[in-house]
Each structure stands twice: as C-alpha cells, then as structure tokens.
C-alpha cells in the first residue's frame, strides 16, 4: 500500500509493502513555465491579405508596392535591378492593358541585349549562372529524360510520382490524362505540348455534376492556384534565362524547340514551372498527408529539373518556390475555401482507402509506404531530406544577417492542418518557426518569412522546445491523431508533456532539457537520445523504448498505473540506462520481443533504484523481476 501526502507539491514518506521502506518521490519536471510563440512580422503587409493583388493590374502596374507577388520577391533587387517598367512608346499599349506588348517592347528596346537592367550583387549573380553551367555540363541521361518530361507534360501529372504506391489510384479517381509519357525521337526538332487534362476533372463541368470520385480534390488543387501567376513578377524583374546570360549553359537539346525567341516574353525569375509544382504539391500534400514529405520532395525535384534543363537558375527556382507557397497559403486561408478543404480531404482519404482496401487510416498509411525504393524513389525518408537539404539555398553564401530571428507568415500554419492535426494552430506556427531555414540567403530573406519556411522538415515535428509543449492526441480520431513520429533533432530548454490516448514516437537525436512527462497514451523513444537531457516522469500511460534502447541524462520516475514497455531487452545491456536515479512507485513493466527461457534480461540501470513494479510481464506472461541497488533485471520463465 502506498501512502501519499497529496497536499505537498512533492510526495513524501512513501511506504512500499514489498520492501517496507520509505523514500521521497521526486518532483515532477516543471519546464520553463510558458509555451513558445511564433510572431507575425510587424508592419509588413501579409500575403494572405493581399494575395489578390498578384494581377497584371490596370495599365500593367505590377510593382513592389502594388503587387503582393512582386513584393514577396523584392529581395531579388539586392541581386538585380530591372530597368524602369515603361518607356514613352509603351503608353498606348499600357493604356489598353496589353502587358505582354509593354514588357516585350521595353525589354527588346535595348539594342543587342538579352538583358534589361543592372547586376547589383555580382558575386551572387555569377554563382547563380555558374551553377547552371556546371550542372548542365554534368547532366545524366536519366536527368535529361526527367527534365524533358517535367517541362512538357502537365505539372500535376509529374507530381503523381510523389504519391508512390497511391499514384495509380489517384490518377484513376482524378480522371487524369496526359499525352506525353516519353521523349519522342524528334523532340529536338518538334515542340510537343501535353493535350491531356493535367490535374484531372473537377466535381462540376459546365455547372453539371461530373467527377464524383476525386472531383472535389481536383477542385481544391485548382483553387490552390488562384491568383497564382508568375507573369507579373517576370514582367517586373526582367531577369533573363540562364542561357541568355552564358553560352556555356547547355540547354537540353530536346527542349530547344521550346525556347522563346524574345526575352521580353520569356523572363527567368521566378520559375513558373517551380511555382506550379509547389502550388500543386502543397495542395496534394494537404489531401494526402501520408505522403507529405514525399510529395514535396517531388516539388523540389521539379524545380531542380528546370535547372538541369538549362531553362532556369537556382534563384529562379527559389523565387518560384516562395511564390508558389505564398499563393497556397493565401488560397487555403480564404473563407470561401474552408468547406472545400474539409470536403476534399474527406473525399481523398475515403477514395484512397477504398482503392487500397485499407480498413483504417493506419492501413492506408501502410499502403502509402508499401513499395521499396526500387519502385518508389521517394521511399527513403533520409534520402529525401538529404536531397532537399542541398537544394533549398543551393549553396549560396549568406548576404545578410544569418542570426536574424524567425518570423512565420500569417496563416502559414494552415498547410500543416492535416499533417499535424493534433496540434493547435499556434503550435503549428511554432513548428514552422523551429524548423525554419537559417537567415541571410539571397532572395529567401523576405520580411514576412516565406523564404525560410521548410514544410518538409516541419512534417517531422518540432525542431526545438523553446517553450513547454503539451501534445494531446485523441486516438479515436484515427490517422496522425492516433499515431505519429517526430524525426527532427529537438533542441531547446522546454519540457514535453504527452497527453491523450494516441501514440507519439520521438526518433531524433534530441537535446531538449526541460524534461518529459507522460500522462496518457504512449510515448516511444526510438533513439537512444530521444528523451533529451531532462528528467522523465511517467505519471500515466506508457513509455516505450526502441530497438536500440534509451539513455536518460536525468532521473526516471514511474507512478502506479503507468507502464514501461521494453521493446527489445537483451542479456548484455539495460534497455533503459538512467544516468540519474530511478524511482518506481509501481505500475507495469512489460517486456516484449524474443526471450529465451531462463535468460536474465537487463531492463533498467541507474545511480540508484528505489521501489518496485506492481506487475511484470514478458510477452504477456507473468515474470519475476530482481532488484539491486542500481538495476532491475527480469528472468524469463520456462
């Protein structure tokens, strides 16, 4: 029987009948005492409020002050300054709203030049073009094929690769078609266009009900691109394609017919293909969060294809990524799309479950990751992250303060709604804040924070606990509410508290220092350093150790009613190594995995061990535990 003075903050004078001795129950971790916040940039017009201004506008006035897309990308002016928007001869065309004529007349009005403006940062500009020269020189045949397909076929058709084993089911439900599936033998002489329907067929056609399979999902992907044109920015910045800057850029021969003869109608910054890849990719990832990172890795790959093709530069691709992302954030925050988001997500999940035979969301997740790397080139999460890491800033040197604080754009958290559904909107903002890219890189230093967003990393949870974090997961809701994994390396001084019936896995090499409290559900430590450097307090629910065991830097406390689940115990070393003290008020020790009769499994070790487990199980069968002053071992029954 355990006696506790509940009036004290720390329970004292506990008496265990098994040992008839008293000890002090350690205090529960208190953390920092506050939650982290993610600020919105002060005095900066929010893209979600002004996204509709991304139009060519009356008299073609697309500029930093009047167009949200141009303003977002204004950091490019530190690299390149375009000429004035108009010349006298353009007045009549401008009055008639003929933006293409204005841009072409102005740009082409510079005799003998394919560029119209002045380089401001010669070092960054040279690195930008030199990168294209080098990568096109080293381009492989497989990269050439991919670059051609990504250029000529519908962008959403290319994005299907990111769905892996779910791609065929999606194509069927979207009623998607394409007329380009290979590189024609005469592609170096003939320009081929995709006469398919790209995203597929929506729920309505000419006001009549059409696609009842994934029509709403198609509608949402289309809605995500509203007011998303890159043309206003192209017309404003007038930055030439890389092959206009340097003859050493090797444009893909099969794309020579696609080159424009007029620089004025063929701006390089930002990349339109890349922007569309991110618009479609983010919408698709929202609908199929089971493949969130894989889909967005495909978006990165689409941008990279533009460089490999010789059609765009790294800065073009960075600009396209930023603008594409901002456009989706804007559209997904529009009130008129709120119901469509819910309905499209439900339709997408239901369709994919039926097509894969998945009876539960967990089964759908398994089906989404059922193919090996040989069949699904995005099947390796570590490989995806490595690929993306080298293609976010493209190796540019910082050009401004690299220690600038992170700001998160207004509404940016919306794109994590389905991937991290158990977090609040503010918590999702903090996730974006703690996973953001470092500051200071060219173009990526916009005041609102879009350039530093890293949704691929954010899909793996927090990057730091700079405040205390309470995670409440309702397993009854299924999907990621029932089970999720955070693979980031979590730093910070804050504390993690796990609540709710769902299961969360920490798989990173974590160093957060505020401690860990488990009140309900399951927390799995799938890395030896998963639980950081603070105390671990299992007040309820289950703490599970991973295959490689866990090392705790602080103390370990387990209360009556809680469970320690050891996934893989051995006779060689403890599954839970505690550098501090161990206090066991009671609860269950549940050992699972291979166990030879008579074997003595080492479970926990620490500076000291006080108390006893109420129940000890090995693969569901009662077992005996032995307690020393510094360890707990279990003998497997015969």
Automatic annotation (TrEMBL):
The keyword Repeat does not apply. Residues 1-22 form the signal peptide. CDD domains: PAP2_acid_phosphatase. Keywords: Signal. It holds the Pfam family PATR. Residues 214-332 form the Phosphatidic acid phosphatase type 2/haloperoxidase domain. InterPro entries: Acid_Pase_classA_bac (IPR001011), Autotrns_rpt (IPR013425), PAP2/HPO (IPR000326), PAP2/HPO_sf (IPR036938), Pectin_lyase_fold/virulence (IPR011050). This is Phospholipid phosphatase. It comes from Devosia yakushimensis.
């Amino acid at each position: 029987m355990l006696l506790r003075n509940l009036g004290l903050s720390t329970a004292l004078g506990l008496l265990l009948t098994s040992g008839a001795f008293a000890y002090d129950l350690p205090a529960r971790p208190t953390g920092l005492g506050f939650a982290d916040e993610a600020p919105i940039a002060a005095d900066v017009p929010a893209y979600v409020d002004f996204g509709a201004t991304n139009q060519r506008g009356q008299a073609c006035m697309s500029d930093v002050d009047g167009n949200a897309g141009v303003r977002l990308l204004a950091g490019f002016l530190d690299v390149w300054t375009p000429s004035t928007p108009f010349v006298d001869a353009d007045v009549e065309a401008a009055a008639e709203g003929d933006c293409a004529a204005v841009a072409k007349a102005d740009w082409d009005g510079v005799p003998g030049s394919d560029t119209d403006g002045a380089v401001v940062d010669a070092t960054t500009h040279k690195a930008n073009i030199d990168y294209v020269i080098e990568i096109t020189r080293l381009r492989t045949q497989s990269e050439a094929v991919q670059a051609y397909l990504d250029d000529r076929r519908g962008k959403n058709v290319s994005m299907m690769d990111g769905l892996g084993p779910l791609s065929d089911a999606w194509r069927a439900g979207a009623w998607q078609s394409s007329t380009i599936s290979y590189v024609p033998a005469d592609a170096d002489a003939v320009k081929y266009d995709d006469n398919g329907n790209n995203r597929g067929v929506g729920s309505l056609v000419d006001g009549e009900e059409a696609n009842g399979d994934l029509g709403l999902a198609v509608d949402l992907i289309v809605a995500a691109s509203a007011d998303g044109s890159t043309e206003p920015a192209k017309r404003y910045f007038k930055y030439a394609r890389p092959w206009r800057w340097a003859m050493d850029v090797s444009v893909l021969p099969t794309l020579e017919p696609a080159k424009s003869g007029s620089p004025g109608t063929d701006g390089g910054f930002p990349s339109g293909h890349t922007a569309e890849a991110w618009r479609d990719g983010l919408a698709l990832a929202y609908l199929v969060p089971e493949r969130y990172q894989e889909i967005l890795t495909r978006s990165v790959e689409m941008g990279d294809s533009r460089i490999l093709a010789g059609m765009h530069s790294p800065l073009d691709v960075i600009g396209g990524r930023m603008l594409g992302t901002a456009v989706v954030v804007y559209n997904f925050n529009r009130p008129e799309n709120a119901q469509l988001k819910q309905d499209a997500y439900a339709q997408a999940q239901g369709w994919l479950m039926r097509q894969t035979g998945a009876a539960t969301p967990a089964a759908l997740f398994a089906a989404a990751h059922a193919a090996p790397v040989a069949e699904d080139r995005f099947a390796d999460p570590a490989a995806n992250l490595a690929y993306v890491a080298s293609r976010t800033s493209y190796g540019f040197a910082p050009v401004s303060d690299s220690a600038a604080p992170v700001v998160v754009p207004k509404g940016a958290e919306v794109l994590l709604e389905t991937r991290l559904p158990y977090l609040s909107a503010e918590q999702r903002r903090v996730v974006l804040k703690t996973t953001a890219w470092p500051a200071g890189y060219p173009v990526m230093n916009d005041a609102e924070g879009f350039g530093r967003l890293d949704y691929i990393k954010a899909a793996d949870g927090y990057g730091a606990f700079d405040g205390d974090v309470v995670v409440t997961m309702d397993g009854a809701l299924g999907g990621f509410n029932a089970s999720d994994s955070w693979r980031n390396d979590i730093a910070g001084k804050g504390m993690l508290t796990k609540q709710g019936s769902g299961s969360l896995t920490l798989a990173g090499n974590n160093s957060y220092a505020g401690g860990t409290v488990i009140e309900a559900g399951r927390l799995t430590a799938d890395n030896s350093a998963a639980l950081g450097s603070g105390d671990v307090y299992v007040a309820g629910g289950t703490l599970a150790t991973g295959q490689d065991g866990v090392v705790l830097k602080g103390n370990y406390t387990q209360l009556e009613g809680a469970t320690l689940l050891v996934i893989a115990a051995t006779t060689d070393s403890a599954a839970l190594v505690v550098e501090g003290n161990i206090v066991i008020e009671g609860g269950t020790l549940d050992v699972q995995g291979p166990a030879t009769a008579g074997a003595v499994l080492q479970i926990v070790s620490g500076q000291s061990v006080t108390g006893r487990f109420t129940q000890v199980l090995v693969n569901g069968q009662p077992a005996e535990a032995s307690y020393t002053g510094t360890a707990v071992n279990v003998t497997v029954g015969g």
